[in-house]
TrEMBL record:
Xref: InterPro entries: KOW, Rib_uL2_dom2, Ribosomal_eL14, Ribosomal_eL14_dom, Translation_prot_SH3-like_sf
Record GO biological process: ribosomal large subunit biogenesis; translation
SUPFAM superfamilies assigned: Translation proteins SH3-like domain
Name this polypeptide is given: 60S ribosomal protein L14
The family this protein is said to belong to: Belongs to the eukaryotic ribosomal protein eL14 family.
Keywords of this entry: Ribonucleoprotein, Ribosomal protein
GO cellular component: cytosolic large ribosomal subunit
The species this protein was found in: Galdieria yellowstonensis
Amino acid sequence: MVFRRFVEIGRVVLVNYGKDRGKLGVIVDVVDHNRALVDGPLTGLARQTINWKSLTLTPFKVKIQHSSRTGVVRKAWEEAKITEQWQNTAWYKKLCARRNKQKLGDFDRFKVMIAKKRKSAMIHSQWKRLKSQQQ
């Protein structure tokens, strides 16, 4: 197995635990084996140290120096068009779909269930018709 996402300065990460869950940031500095200094100037992620267990590495990287300031990180983020690249990934779309599903109320979930049943019934009836035509 060949790794393609390495922990490095400038690597874009996704926070998946805590109050900043779902926000993107950039690794600005590696503090130690357990933590990294992360900054997300355009995503609302304040500059802070975050545990590695709370981060997921993305395939994106910006070109910055070790311990760069927030303004430099913002400029590099905009030049690399990270936000647009992130919004075009299947990962982002899956997270949005999950978020939208969580927002549904009881009646909305009921309507989705009925729609799934109708779709399944239509597929099943067409499958039966095709099978009978083949015989």
